[in-house]
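Suppose you are handed a protein chain with no further information: no name, no annotation, nothing but its sequence. What can you learn? This example shows the usual starting point.
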Amino acid sequence: MKPPRSMRALEELGRVRLSRNFFMRDFLYSEIANFHRIQNIPDDPDLAIMAGRKLCEEALEPLWDRFGRISVRSAYRSPEVNRFGNQHNLNCGSNESNFAGHIWDRRTARGEMGACATIIVHALIPWYETTGRWEAMAWWIHDHLPYDELEFFPKFAAFNYGHGDRQTRRIRSYIPPRRGILTKPGMPGADGDHSAEYVEWLETLE
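A reasonable first move is to predict its three-dimensional structure. Written in structure tokens, the prediction is:
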């Protein structure tokens, strides 16, 4: 698919179905792009679609099947949008750090493909607001699904779900008091079963 150069072409890109519950259009909205009038459109739609399908089919759909509705808070960013966000302190890392992350249509320097979406799992909200235990979601994903990196944030325990070729399997939190790395390969407790961390939450969903 060629880069969209018209509204109709962008409309067609938005209609590309990435998986059972998700279309490309679900991932193109950006507050930064909207407010500052910067186009948030992939230069390489085919790579963005391929990376997005992997994220949706292997990660987001299994989450939806198990826990129900997912809201997308942020996802694809064009290099222009991400660069603007980085330069103006709008919670965007550098472009290089977001290749195969929020910038779906760029591979890493090693040629790795990937995609990242900031999502909210609605079924987690009541548990998180009552207990503050966002780790239940983190450890469930760690035990059941592939991922590159998860990053959790205070509002609604929204988190970045990065998934692609790297499979670094690192979980980071920006939620006090447990800021920092929850787990990564080589850390004590990274391997094995972590169901004790989420069994109480799952019981509230039955």
